[in-house]
Amino acid sequence: MEPKDAVAGHRTIALTVRGWLLGAATISFAVLTWLIVANALSAFILLFTAILFAEGVRPSVHRLAKSMPHGVAIIAVLASILLAFVTATIALFQPLGNQSARLLAALPEIAQSLQNQFLQTQQFLHRSEGAQALVSSLSSASTALLAMAGQKLLGGPAVLAQLVGNGVLIVLLTIAWLMASAELKAFVLSLLPPTRRDRWSGAFDEIGVKLGAYVQGVVINGIVVGVATGIVLALLGIPYALLLGFVAAIFQAIPLVGAIISGPIIILAALATSGWTKALFATGAFVIVQLVDQNALSPIIFGQRVQLSFLLIVFSTVLGVTLLGIAGAFLAVPAAAALQVIVVRIVAPAIRSANDPS
């Protein structure tokens, strides 16, 4: 019996080791798969961003291509945009850099000022436990936000290097898309039945128009909102007005979510540096700017070329934030616009045709 027990014991140990090895291999494969998917998502985000940029500049490329070779027109348009970007960067770099440095140096003082403001508010509202709890929560949240802002500002060089690297990749992908998209479209259409090619060709053209109009609208809208916000804050005498206007312009590119992010940043900065009175004025001014933008400015800028229902914008933005964070929120609406064209011009007619008995 002893040899059998020994053999049995030996087999148990062998199976256990095999199980551990199998488990380790499974975990390693899962981690490797996740890394591949994560990198693929990053590459897809860069590619889709480049496609958006390409469709945004395509009208200018087409106009120049009437008087020069297509490749030269692409280089000329991108060079003009790069020159304008560098000029704006040089013009804004020194004031934005000075304000960022001042903000970074003043962060401890700003955090202490915010805590004092909230403490005074708690003492004023000492009779209301619910209000005290709300103020305490706001104080904790603002302190955490300032700490995160400090870390981002301290990591500025690394973030800047990453942005420059991604920017170079986006420019190269944009050039590739502008030069090869026509051939790619012809190849895809050649794979379809002849009776469906016109419909798909029209859908591709409409998607390009919508994406281009969306990109142009986002840029113009962000500039207008950022300038308006900065001017209003400067008139109110709030420090870092230029930097806060820049923040509003950047986050304006994200539908719905952008204002939710930039609004608290601007209000907390006004509260910490200028007190409750100017913070309330800043809040009112920010709300007015956003209302004017949503009800008057955006319909004029985007016009009829980008027709998306409010429900689709909300759903796509929430889905994008859930899946990919801030980048997903930025890319969700143009992706939804492209998908809407496919559904309206391709899927819906096919379903109606299939259900039509005649």
List keywords for this structure.
91% helix; 358 residues; disordered N terminus; mainly alpha
Give the uncertain stretches in residue-range form. Answer: 1-15
Query: How would you characterize the largest beta sheet?
Result: none
C-alpha end-to-end distance: 82 Å
Helix content: over 70%
Mean pLDDT: 77
What coarse outline follows from CA principal-axis ratios? globular
Give me the secondary-structure category.
mainly alpha
The portion of residues forming beta strands comes to under 5%
Number of strands: 0
Series of H and E elements: HHHHHHHH
User: Whole-number radius of gyration?
Assistant: 27 Å
- State the helix count: 8
Can you describe what's shown?
The chain is globular and about 75 Å long. By secondary structure, the protein is mostly helical. Helix 2 packs antiparallel against helix 3, helix 2 crosses helix 4 and helix 5 (194-235) packs across helix 7 (257-302). It has a domain at 192-351. Mean pLDDT is 77; it is low at 1-15. The chain contains 8 helices and no strands. Helix content is 91%, strand content 0%.
